[in-house]
Write a structure and sequence with these properties.
The structure is a single chain. The protein has 323 residues and is an alpha/beta fold. It folds into two domains: 172 residues, 3-Layer(aba) Sandwich (Peroxisomal Thiolase, Chain A, domain 1); 142 residues, 3-Layer(aba) Sandwich (Peroxisomal Thiolase, Chain A, domain 1). It contains nine helices and 13 strands. The strands form four sheets. The chain has a five-stranded mixed sheet, sandwiched between helices. Strands 8-13-12-11 form a four-stranded mixed sheet, with helices on both faces. The protein starts with a strand and ends with a strand. The mean pLDDT is 97. Bound molecules: oxa(dethia)-CoA. Oxa(dethia)-CoA binds next to helix 2, helix 6 and strand 12.
Length: 323
């Protein structure tokens, strides 16, 4: 028998305020048509004043716990992927722990920017496989609206706020690719590309800073690296694209999503796409897409998923899991 980290619940939360592309036409030299055709984004949610990443994360966590039929007391650990934690420290994860009324276990943040949820899933899987936790709440939550330069049309029209969460639980499997749960992971980073996507603030500047991106340069790396990491993860799981029911990609740009699916030989009808409604929510985009995909009835128990992401670092990776 082989221990597996199996999804027992999923949920998400999006801030109330929805901002359509047309809003940016009032203040920037841009158009709804440019944003839609270059990125696939039509609208995004922005957090209200005072609404923080840990608040969004808490609401997504509560939705996932309800979906799993569990309470916070049933969870041993919280792993929260974010690059927009409320404060420099403590972690947003410990704030969520307190908000949920969870007095035992442990909680920590993971910072791998847009690849954060893939890194968080891989770490949560390791906690379960090593016996350090039986049930892990894995969250991706962001308020990227707080780090936008509203005068930079090349970035501020692309990002949004939101949160998604999964509950993983240890379960015995047969040890083959028919098992439910995480079947394989693949993580990568290359710090020599730090200038392509970064925030120009932090402890060293005494400011929280603004996101800076050479979008077309990141784009150049994206499709090849995403297809490669997904292929590596599939080989490790001993599955092929024919076995895949859904690609659940990071939602940065519809052209990257389409290019990666094409390179992998997967039809777009087998890809979960939410970028039009959420924009790029960085580490929150994959659990948001999983939650929307499950709620809409597309992703069903037993389906085989590949999830992949790339972002600042550069950091990128993929996870193969059977829902
Ligand atoms: O999630 C983390 C990882 N991030 C990503 O994966 C993002 C990857 N990159 C992208 O999604 C795309 O590169 C963008 C959507 C950011 C940009 O699309 P692009 O097709 O690569 O455009 P570009 O950056 O090469 O810019 C083309 C033109 C430029 O004008 P010139 O130099 O050709 O005259 C830009 O100044 O589009 C201009 N432009 C805009 N025009 C209208 C840039 N932003 C805008 C805008 N509205 N908002």
């Amino acid at each position: 028998m082989t221990l597996r980290a199996v999804v027992k619940g999923v949920g998400h939360y999006l801030p109330e305020r929805i901002v359509p592309n047309a809003e940016f036409e009032k203040t920037l030299d841009t158009t709804d048509e440019w944003i839609k055709s270059r990125s696939g984004i039509e609208r995004r949610h922005f957090a209200a004043e005072g609404e923080t990443t840990s608040m969004l994360a808490t609401k997504a966590a509560q939705a996932a716990l309800t979906n799993a039929g569990m309470t916070a007391d049933d969870v041993d650990a919280i792993v929260l992927a974010t690059s927009t934690a409320d404060l420099t420290f403590p972690s947003a994860a410990t704030m969520v722990q307190a908000n949920l009324g969870m007095t035992k276990g442990f909680a920590f943040d993971i910072q791998a920017v847009c690849a954060g949820f893939v890194f968080a899933l891989s770490n949560a899987n390791a906690l379960i496989l090593s016996g350090q936790a039986k049930r892990v709440l894995v969250i991706g939550a962001e308020t990227f609206s707080r780090i936008m330069d509203w005068t930079d049309r090349g970035t501020c029209v692309l990002f949004g706020d939101g949160a998604g969460a999964l509950i993983l639980e240890a379960e015995e499997g047969a040890g083959d690719s028919g098992d439910r749960g995480i079947l394989s992971t693949d993580l990568n980073s290359d710090g020599t590309h730090r200038d392509l996507l970064y925030v120009d603030g932090g402890v060293s500047t005494g400011t929280s800073g603004y996101l800076r991106m050479q979008g077309n340069q990141v784009f150049r790396h994206a499709v090849g690296k995403l297809a490669a990491t997904a292929t590596t993860a599939m080989e490790r799981a001993n599955v092929t694209t024919d076995d895949i029911d859904w690609i659940v990609p990071h939602q940065a740009n519809i052209r990257i999503i389409q290019g990666t699916a094409k390179k992998m030989g997967v039809l777009m009808e087998n890809v979960i796409v939410t970028v039009q409604d959420h924009g790029n929510t960085s580490a929150a985009s994959i659990p948001l897409a999983m939650s929307v995909g499950a709620q809409s009835g597309k992703i069903k128990k037993g389906d085989l998923l590949v999830t992949e992401a790339i972002g600042g670092g550069l950091a990128w990776g993929a996870v193969v899991l059977r829902w």
